[in-house]
Specification:
The protein is mostly beta strands and 72 residues long. It has one domain. 14% of the residues lie in helices and 57% in strands. The chain is built from one helix and three strands. A hairpin with a 4-residue loop joins strand 2 and strand 3. The longest helix is centred in the first third of the chain and has 10 residues. It is elongated and about 50 Å long.
């Protein structure tokens, strides 16, 4: 069952996080490849990330959490 996020979710998560935690998430990356003939092909790939938190910040204007970390 998927729950609808509300504006308090990011703030509450920010208050629960600490440096050293492990965070899992998915994202989309645009991958571009250039062939020998110079033709460029790009595609979007879905990636899964597992990060060990080094630093994090909450942006109240956009209700987002920014996480800086290393691959775990």
């Amino acid at each position: 069952m998927m729950l609808e996020p509300n504006t308090d979710d990011a703030w509450n998560l920010y208050n629960l996080m600490s440096v050293g935690d492990i965070v899992y998430g998915t994202c989309h990356r645009k991958i571009t490849k250039e062939s020998y003939t110079g033709m460029v092909k790009s595609e979007r790939k879905k990636m899964s990330l597992l990060l060990k938190v080094l630093k994090f910040d909450y942006d109240a204007d956009t209700d987002l959490i920014r996480v800086l970390g290393t691959n775990a």
